[in-house]
Amino acid sequence: GNTLTIWLWGNFSVSKATLMRFFSFHFILPMLMTLMIFIHILFLHNKGSNNPLGVNSNFDKLPFHPFFSWKDILGVMFIMNFFMIITLICPYSLMDPDNFTPANPMVTPI
User: How far is CA 104 from CA 46, 54, 55, 94, 108, in A?
Assistant: First the structure.
């Protein structure tokens, strides 16, 4: 908990090292999620469902690769289009309202 937080955010300071760590994680996490999705589609959807008991059940396997692959692709496209429409039509709807607070150099932020 505490050790990991201090390592990630540099003891709660906002400096160059902290920002570099934040931007690095912010850049690499979507790549890791995309990699996990591709691994999921490649291995799970290509093999079909199996029997967890280890009994040979080749006659019971369902070749569900095409259906679930298309379902996943269409689902991702739907979600991406939904967020793209939201951000293009009303771009400020997903923002933090604190971003519109005017800057005052004489006040230290909390």
Answer: 57, 66, 69, 24, 8
